[in-house]
Amino acid sequence: MVQKAIQMNDGRTRVEIVVATIRQRIAGRSLTPGARLPSVRGLAATLKLSTSTVVDAYERLVAEGAILARPGSGFYVANQAAPFALAEAGPKLDRAVDPFWISRQSLEAGEADLKPGCGWLPPSWLPGDGMRRGLRTLARADGPALADYGSPLGLPQLRQLISRRMGERGIEASPDQIMLADSGTQAIDLLCRFLLEPGDTVLVDDPCYFNFHALLRAHRAKIVGVPYTASGPDIDLFAQVVADERPRLYITNSAIHNPTGATLSPVTAHRVLKLADQIDLTIIEDDIFADFEHTPAPRLAAFDGLERVIHIGSFSKTLSAAARCGFVVAKPEWIDGLTDLKIATSFGGGRLTAELVLNVLSDGSYRKHMETLRHRLSRAMSEVSAKLKNLGITPWLEPQAGMFLWCRLPDGIDAANVARAALDRRIVLAPGNAFSLSQSATNFMRFNVSQTLDPRVFEVLGDILPGKR
Q1: pLDDT at residue 366 is higher than 70
Q2: What keywords is this UniProt entry annotated with (predicted)?
């Protein structure tokens, strides 16, 4: 029997409560696949409800696939295919160092919460006036710009602009070698769909951007990490892993590394490319922080000429995370296959957002905004670094640019415990093991300096860290 009676005390309708009750019984295995549900009349009598209420509840459950209707026989529990749970795809870790923990807490934080662990700038640091001008211009656009699907390859004028911007960083790519995506994350997702089969080995930096782990687990890849140094991956260990594991892909940041803030050196870049050539290793170079640089750093794609390096970028960090727009730069034959895959997974391009991004980037104020932003971040980097040092929190290195400080906590302090305690005080931090495949960053933490200027951050850290108050 499903339930003895229905208690109407939580604002839900009777139908909603019957549906929820049966769902719970199925999830709890009280009702197993193939089990016959009570008849409509029988359940209505048991629950002291009308038959129409039970009919409506059963119809909803049939519509969502939870139960099956067999004419002349009754209703039965459907076979439930267990959904693929990304959180279960990796090692069983404490939730505080799970790659999803930081993202969920940061994205769901209230306006009063502080987010030193998030990966984006505060709204007041972004070009709000430029975005408003772009939206006003877009509002006056013709019908197709506002209503039609975009080309799968993406808005031609924006791809032309990106091509010129790539040239400023030494990467020669025609507009036909550029495909727009909804974001840098979608770009990597498409590339994983395009290049990987389940079980393929993918090489990542250790530490690296935590969502690389999540994406690769979603594609059921075997993930192997290589320690990252101040000048790039540890090249001797990189060579050893390449020889032993023969990975299909290597995903990295070269210009401003996330989370360490390090910059790839030319010598390391050349050695990485030489090793990649030996085993036909494809490299995805994530360059979404490019506009934060004062002086362009070496790019693998520039040295390689886009032979085996795929370059991706995004405008979410410098324009707006609400207007999602990224891009892939690759050799022409790969762009053609990626375009087909984009049609299959998302059909046309996001024309409205692409038009907005083009308007803002074409405005002369964007370059001035970025100059101001780089100086502002540089000042914040110095201020936050000094205040963290006063608490015994030591930067791993002093980054040349960007927004991140990768810091070591005092000896014996677990960053996950600090993050849990800070969350109780409405502060979201980024514990190091979320970035580390080997779980070797227990006492490290990433700080976003633009989000760490509020005095409350240092006050709470001082309260949590032993002997600092």
Answers
A1: yes
A2: Aminotransferase, DNA-binding, Pyridoxal phosphate, Transcription, Transcription regulation, Transferase
